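Hey team,

Sharing the Ferritin run so nobody has to redo it. Sequence (165 residues) first:
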Amino acid sequence: MLSQTMKDALNQQVLMEAQSSQAYLAMGSWGEIQPGLKGVTQFFFRHSEEERMHMLKLIHYINERGGFAIIPKLEQPTLTFVSLKKAFEILLDHEIKVSNSINNLVDLALQEKDYATHNFLQWYVNEQMEEERLARECNDKLEMIGEDRSGLYLFDRDIMTMDAS
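Structure output:
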């Protein structure tokens, strides 16, 4: 059984994962209207689906542990970006924010001696390490490319095969 504090905190994480999915969906839509960014578009759409899966995993866990998962109302995400580089900077910043939130949940689980939730959250800890690594890698590549259009072409091609899990 989850404490009320833990239920509330997990439901906040449901909101964060839903917002992540929406944000990456908006990035994908923006990417789709940019010329020549098919790979980037697929990356963002795939990333959005993964964040939705993260949200669903939390919803199921809350409900299975005797809580009630709240399906959150979402605010409109940012719809346009000044550059591809800026979009990926936002992605990295957001993933760091999600990692911090997961770490706070882990801390709460330990404080409450809720070892089942602590164990459940370890998947998210590992997932966030991978998410941050991938976002940093994309940012590093875009930094190296700068304004080089041929480099951007190669980045767009390569990102289709990058693991967004």
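The CA atoms of residues 19 and 75 lie 8 Å apart.

Ping me if you want the raw files.
A.
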